C-alpha cells in the first residue's frame, strides 16, 4: 500500500503514534533518574536529619539545665527546679529519638555513653541540692565547679560527637546524590536530544502533508478576500486536502454567482436603512461596542453642531462631551438591556441659545451570539412638557402664597376658640375644632413645602457652599432620629468614612438625608436597619441611605421624585405630602449632583445621591 493512497488522517495518526512513543520513552527514562535521585535525597533528609535535630535538642536542653543549676546555686531554688525538670524531659525526649534512629556505625556507642553520663549528671544535681541545703552557698558553688561542670562538658562533648558523625554522613550522602544527579542530567540530555531530533523529523513530515497544500489554499483565499473570485486549485490527491480543494473551487464559483445576483440588492437595502435613520424627526445616534460613533441623523448633527462625515469613527465622549449620555451607553453595554432617562431627570442641552430638555433611550442591537455590537441612542424633545411643568409650578406657588394668609387667620381663630378666649366649648365642639386645627396645620405644612419647592425651582434658594466632612453630615442627620429608632427597634448605622469631604451646604444636605431617614423609618419594621455610607468615585462622592424595609414597587421607582407622588402602602401611616423627595431632588440638583433609587419589594431600598469634591 502506497503512502500517497492513505488518507491524511491516517498519515497524521501514524506520525502522532511515533511521536507519542518517543515521548513515553523520554518520560520513562526521566522518571527512572528522578527515582534514583529521590532515593539519594531520602538518605540525606530522612536517615540522618532526625539524629541531627535530636543532637541539637539535647545540647539545647543540657545548656538550659546547666543555667538552671547556676540559678539554683544563687538562691532561686523553685525557679531553678522548674527549669531543670522541664529541660530534663526535653533531653530525655530527644535522647529517645536519637536512640530510635541509629543508622551509622559508632552511633549506638555514643548514645550509650550519653545515657550513662547523663544519669550521673542527674545524680550529681541531687547531691548539689543536698549540699546547698546542708553546707551553704560556697560549698555548693565549689561542688558545681569541681564535679557538675566537668560532667556537663563531657555530656556536651558526647552530644557534639553524635551531631558530627551524622553531619559527616549527610555530607557523604549529599556527594552521592550530586553524583547521581550529574549522571541523570547527562543521560537525560542525550536521550532528550535524540527524542527531539526524531520528533522534529516526524513533525516536519506531518507539517509538509498539511502546510504545502494549505499554503496554496491560503493564497487563493486571500485572492478571493480581495474580491478576485476567478480562482481555481488543481486537485492532485484524493485525501482530505484534495476534497477541500474541490470544495473550494465549488465555493468560489457559487460566490461569483451570488455576488453578481445580490450586490445591487444589498446596496439598495443599505440606502433604504440610512434613509430611514436620516428621516427620524428626533436626534438619533448609533455607536458600536467600542463606543465609536457610526451614524447620526441630521437632527443630531444640528443639536450637537457636528458633521457626521468628520467625526465618524471617533469615540462618542470625544465629540459629544455629555457624561450622562456616555454613562447610559456604558450601562446598556454592561447589562445588554434598554436604558432610559426619565422625564424628571431629563437631559438639558443648549440648542439655538435656548435650553432644551430630552428624554433619552439607549437600545442594544445584538448579534447571533447574543452579544451587543451596536447601541441606538434616541433623544426625544420634551421641552414643551418642561415648560408646562414650569407653568404648573408657578401656578402652585401663586396659589400657595394666596393660601398662607387665610390659613394663618383660620389657625389663629381656631386656637383662640380652643383656648376658651371667646367662650367655653362643649366636648363635641372641642373635638371638631381640634380636627380643624390639625387640618390647618397640615395645610400650612403643605404650603410651606410648596413655597420651598418653588424657591428652589426658581433659583431663589440661598446655598452656603463650604467644604464639609461627610462624617459631620452623618452626625447631624442621625441625631434627631436616635430616640425614635430605639423605640421602633431599628438600628441606625453610619459607616466609617474617614476624612472624606464634599462641597455643599451642610443644612440643606442634612435636610435631604433627614428626609430620607424619616421615610425609611416609616417603612422599616422592628429589627431592621438603616445604614448611611459614602464612597469617592471619580471626581464625585456617592452618598447612600439604605434600609431593610418593605421596598418600592417598580411602577413607583420612576415617579417617587415627582411632586405629590406617594407610594401606596396600606400598612404604613401615610401622612406625607408627597413633596419631600421632590424637594430633595431639587436641592441635590442645585448642588450639581443627581439622586436616584434602587429597590426590590421585600428587600429594602437604597437612595443614592452625588455631590462634588471640595475645590
How many individual helices? 16
Query: Helix fraction?
Result: 55-70%
How confident overall, as mean pLDDT? 78
Shape designation: flat
Specify the structural class: alpha+beta
Oligomer kind: single chain
| Alpha carbon gyration radius | 46 Å
Residue ranges: pLDDT <50 for 5 or more in a row? none
**What fraction strand?**
5-15%
Largest sheet: 6 strands, antiparallel
- C-alpha termini separation: 87 Å
Instruction: Count all strands and give the number.
Output: 13
Give, in order, the helices and strands. HHHHHEEHHHHEEEEHHEHHEEHEEHHEE
Tag the structure with descriptive keywords:
13% strand; alpha+beta; 64% helix; 5-stranded mixed sheet; 16 helices; 615 residues
Describe this structure in words.
The chain has 615 residues and is of the alpha+beta class. The strands form 3 sheets. Strands 1, 2, 3, 4, 5 and 6 form a 6-stranded antiparallel sheet that branches. A 5-stranded mixed sheet has the order 8-10-11-13-12. A two-stranded antiparallel ribbon has the order 7-9. Strand 4 and strand 5 form a beta hairpin. It is built from 16 helices and 13 strands.
Amino acid at each position: 500500500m502506497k503512502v500517497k493512497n492513505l488518507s491524511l488522517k491516517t498519515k497524521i495518526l501514524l506520525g502522532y503514534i511515533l511521536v507519542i512513543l518517543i515521548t513515553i520513552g523520554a518520560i520513562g527514562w526521566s522518571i527512572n533518574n528522578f527515582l534514583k535521585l529521590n532515593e539519594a535525597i531520602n538518605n540525606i533528609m530522612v536517615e540522618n536529619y532526625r539524629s541531627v535535630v535530636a543532637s541539637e535538642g539535647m545540647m539545647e536542653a543540657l545548656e538550659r539545665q546547666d543555667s538552671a543549676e547556676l540559678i539554683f546555686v544563687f538562691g532561686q531554688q523553685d525557679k531553678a527546679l522548674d527549669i531543670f525538670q522541664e529541660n530534663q524531659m526535653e533531653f530525655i525526649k530527644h535522647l529517645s529519638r536519637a536512640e530510635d534512629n541509629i543508622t551509622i556505625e559508632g552511633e549506638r556507642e555514643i548514645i550509650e555513653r550519653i545515657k550513662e553520663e547523663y544519669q550521673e549528671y542527674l545524680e550529681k544535681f541531687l547531691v548539689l541540692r543536698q549540699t546547698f541545703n546542708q553546707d551553704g552557698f560556697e560549698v555548693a558553688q565549689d561542688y558545681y565547679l569541681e564535679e557538675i561542670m566537668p560532667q556537663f562538658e563531657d555530656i556536651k562533648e558526647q552530644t557534639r560527637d553524635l551531631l558530627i558523625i551524622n553531619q559527616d554522613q549527610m555530607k557523604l550522602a549529599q556527594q552521592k546524590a550530586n553524583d547521581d544527579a550529574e549522571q541523570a542530567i547527562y543521560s537525560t540530555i542525550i536521550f532528550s536530544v535524540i527524542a527531539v531530533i526524531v520528533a522534529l523529523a516526524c513533525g516536519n513530515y506531518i507539517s509538509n502533508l498539511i502546510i504545502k497544500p494549505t499554503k496554496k489554499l491560503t493564497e487563493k483565499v486571500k485572492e478571493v478576500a480581495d474580491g478576485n473570485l476567478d480562482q481555481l486549485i488543481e486537485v492532485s490527491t484524493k485525501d482530505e486536502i484534495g476534497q477541500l480543494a474541490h470544495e473550494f473551487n465549488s465555493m468560489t464559483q457559487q460566490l461569483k454567482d451570488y455576488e453578481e445576483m445580490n450586490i445591487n440588492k444589498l446596496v439598495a437595502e443599505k440606502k433604504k436603512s440610512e434613509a430611514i435613520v436620516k428621516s427620524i424627526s428626533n436626534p438619533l445616534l448609533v455607536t458600536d461596542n467600542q463606543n465609536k460613533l457610526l451614524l447620526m441623523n441630521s437632527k443630531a448633527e444640528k443639536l450637537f453642531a457636528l458633521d457626521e462625515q468628520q467625526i465618524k469613527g471617533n469615540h462618542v465622549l470625544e465629540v459629544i462631551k455629555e457624561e450622562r449620555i456616555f454613562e447610559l451607553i456604558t450601562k446598556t453595554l454592561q447589562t445588554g438591556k434598554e436604558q432610559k432617562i426619565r422625564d424628571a431627570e431629563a437631559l438639558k442641552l443648549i440648542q439655538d441659545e435656548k435650553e432644551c430638555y430630552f428624554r433619552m433611550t439607549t437600545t442594544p442591537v445584538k448579534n447571533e451570539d447574543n452579544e451587543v455590537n451596536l447601541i441606538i441612542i434616541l433623544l426625544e424633545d420634551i421641552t414643551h412638557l418642561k415648560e408646562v411643568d414650569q407653568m404648573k409650578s408657578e401656578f402652585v406657588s401663586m396659589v400657595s402664597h394666596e393660601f398662607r394668609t387665610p390659613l394663618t387667620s383660620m389657625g389663629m381663630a381656631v386656637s383662640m376658640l380652643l383656648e376658651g378666649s371667646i367662650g367655653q366649648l362643649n366636648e363635641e365642639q372641642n373635638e371638631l375644632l381640634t380636627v380643624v386645627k390639625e387640618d390647618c396645620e397640615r395645610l400650612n405644612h403643605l404650603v410651606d413645602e410648596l413655597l420651598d419647592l418653588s424657591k428652589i425651582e426658581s433659583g431663589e434658594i440661598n446655598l452656603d457652599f463650604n467644604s464639609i466632612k461627610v462624617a459631620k453630615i452623618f452626625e447631624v442627620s442621625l441625631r434627631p432620629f436616635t430616640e425614635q429608632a430605639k423605640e421602633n427597634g431599628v438600628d441606625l448605622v453610619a459607616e466609617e468614612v474617614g476624612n472624606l469631604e464634599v462641597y455643599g451646604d451642610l443644612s440643606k444636605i442634612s435636610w435631604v438625608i433627614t428626609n430620607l431617614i424619616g421615610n425609611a423609618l416609616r417603612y422599616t419594621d422592628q429589627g431592621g436597619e438603616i445604614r448611611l455610607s459614602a464612597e469617592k468615585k471619580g471626581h464625585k462622592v456617592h452618598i447612600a441611605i439604605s434600609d431593610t424595609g418593605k421596598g418600592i414597587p417598580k411602577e413607583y421607582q420612576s415617579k417617587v421624585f415627582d411632586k405629590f407622588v406617594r407610594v401606596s402602602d396600606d400598612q404604613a401611616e401615610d401622612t406625607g405630602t408627597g413633596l419631600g423627595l421632590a424637594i430633595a431632588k431639587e436641592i441635590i440638583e442645585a448642588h450639581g449632583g443627581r439622586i436616584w433609587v434602587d429597590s426590590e419589594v421585600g428587600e429594602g431600598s437604597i437612595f443614592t445621591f452625588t455631590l462634588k469634591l471640595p475645590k
